[in-house]
Design a protein that fits this description.
By secondary structure, the protein is an all-alpha fold. The chain has 1 helix and no strands. Helix content is 65%, strand content 0%. The chain starts with 15 loop residues before the first helix and ends with a helix.
Length: 48
Amino acid sequence: MTSCPTELPRLTGGTGGDVALTMRSWAREHHHCATRHNGLVEALEKRR
């Protein structure tokens, strides 16, 4: 089991493309972490 990252990638520039790339990275990290988190919550709820 791994923890979710405590820091997200920083914005590397001020253009719209830079913002889009950074936000896409944030979204990917969120979904990856949420999947693990939700799986753990579901497993714990089944044990009740």
